[in-house]
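REQUEST FORM: STRUCTURE PREDICTION
Request ID: SP-0412
Submitted by: Lab K.M.
Chain count: 1
Length (residues): 129
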Amino acid sequence: MSLKPKKSHIPSEPVNRKDELRGPWGRINPEPQSVITLRLCKKASPSTEETHSYPYRVLSSWNWLGGVGEEELKIEASSDLVTIKGRGLGRLAEALDLNALEIVSEEPAGKPADLENPIWVSSITISQS
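STATUS: Completed
RESULT:
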């Protein structure tokens, strides 16, 4: 009597699955508590970018406001208030909770949101709180 191989009841992940941890919006480290600095890349003009870095120890709070339309994530970083607008920002808030959010990048102005990507950042503003 020959033995038949068992088939798994758990569907395997597709090989060509899009990486949900990085994209034009930025990067999340898969290891929790692994990131010590959050970098924010803001478009100053179509050809230049401003980068602001904040150590995680100065991030005092964040608040994610989800909804049907554009979402908003507000982060208090030392004396600055960072406001990120876009879609799928709840995933960024989860990564902040785990100290795993490395980089958040603003999409170029006028570029339509990539509907294939679950996260999209339309704007990053930094002001004194």
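NOTES: The CA atoms of residues 7 and 13 lie 15 Å apart.
Reviewed by: T.R.
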